[in-house]
Specification:
Layout: E1 2-13, E2 16-27, E3 31-35, H1 42-49, E4 57-62, E5 65-71, E6 74-77, H2 80-87, E7 90-93, H3 105-115, H4 121-134, H5 150-162, E8 168-172, H6 180-195, E9 199-203, H7 207-213, E10 216-221, E11 224-229, H8 231-235, H9 240-250
Parallel strand pairs: 3-9, 3-10, 7-8, 8-9
Antiparallel strand pairs: 1-2, 1-4, 4-5, 5-6, 10-11
Length: 252
């Protein structure tokens, strides 16, 4: 069974169709990267998959549970309680960290497990400390976000997402706000998660990383999936636009 299915999804903002008949299926343990120029709809796919945006038409399904489906040509969403359950299947890591500035690192991580999942506080703390250790931040639990580097903040936001034990993790350009040195440390964490067979969808402009970490790469432009395949397929593509895009980014 597919962990995530988006079928024939469309999304319009202010009369502009940003996603046009998008279909994506992701199996458990699969790592899928989405690449493409700015404004191609990559981040919108993630926002629709995680229900930060509503789709206009199409279907959204997690592990066979329908979050949205078509009725009369328009998308209809499941009842609130069902969506609440479905929300637990996924975590999202943003490009600008989105940590609570007034919480220390530990509280940033345990806040949702305790308040949303009702995990006992002591258990949440133990699990958070294990995650921090795993991500090389074992000595940072009492720090506040402003005391950390961008790379450390992004690793805390990955720990926060993992603390909810999601089935699938979405990354929206996780390194775009970081300099090259800090980018390397965050990409290393994502590669480790891939080795552990964490299911991930990653919107990225890091071509070499996408090539190394992904089972499948999706190339988007103008709201369409223009090409999809293994890293080998995409990097050896005869599609002029794909070649041009990858060539430009690789030669930076």
């Amino acid at each position: 069974m597919n962990l995530l299915e988006m079928n024939h999804v469309s999304k319009t903002f202010d009369g502009l169709e940003v996603l046009k008949d998008i279909s994506i299926q992701v199996k458990e343990g699969e790592v899928v990267s989405i690449i493409g120029p700015s404004g191609s709809g990559k981040s919108t796919i993630l926002r629709c998959a995680t229900m930060l945006e509503t789709i206009d038409s199409g279907e959204l399904t997690y592990l066979g549970r329908k979050a949205a489906w078509n009725e009369g040509g328009k998308a209809v969403y499941a009842a609130h309680n069902e969506l609440k359950e479905i929300h637990r299947y996924y975590g999202l890591v943003f490009q600008n960290f989105n940590l609570f500035p007034h919480f220390n690192v530990l509280k940033n991580i345990i806040d949702a497990p305790v308040s949303v999942l009702k995990v006992p506080k002591e258990q949440a703390i133990t699990e958070a400390r294990e995650l921090l250790k795993k991500l090389g931040l074992g000595d940072k639990e009492d720090y506040y976000p402003h005391q950390l580097s961008g790379g450390q903040q992004q690793r805390v936001s990955i720990a926060r997402a993992l603390a909810l034990k999601p089935k699938i993790l979405f990354f929206d350009e996780p390194t775009s706000a970081l300099d090259p040195e800090l980018t390397t440390e965050v990409l290393k964490v994502i590669k480790e998660l891939a080795k552990e067979h964490m299911t991930m969808i990653i919107v990225t402009h890091e071509m070499q990383f996408a090539k190394e970490v992904s089972e499948r790469i999706i190339f988007m432009e103008n709201g369409y999936i223009q090409e999809e395949g293994t890293p080998e397929d995409i990097f050896n593509s005869e599609n002029t636009r794909v070649k041009e895009f990858i060539g430009k980014l690789e030669s930076r």
